[in-house]
Amino acid sequence: xxxxxxxxxxxxxxxxxxxxxxxxxxxxxxxxxxxxxxxxxxxxxxxxxxxxxxxxxxxxxxxxx
Length: 65
Known about the structure:
Elements: E1 4-5, H1 7-12, H2 17-26, H3 31-37, E2 39-40, H4 41-47, H5 52-64
Antiparallel strand pairs: 1-2
């Protein structure tokens, strides 16, 4: 089962909504869908080419479910 990364995980890292929106736009990801449903860890890492922000978000999602 894939871990789902949610906005709460990014907030734990101190990321603000506008910064996350820019990040999603940079990698052509659907920010609105993310806010509603989260995003699979594998999908996020693949889409972002293992960008540091994505890696940290996945780590937090693994730690905090």
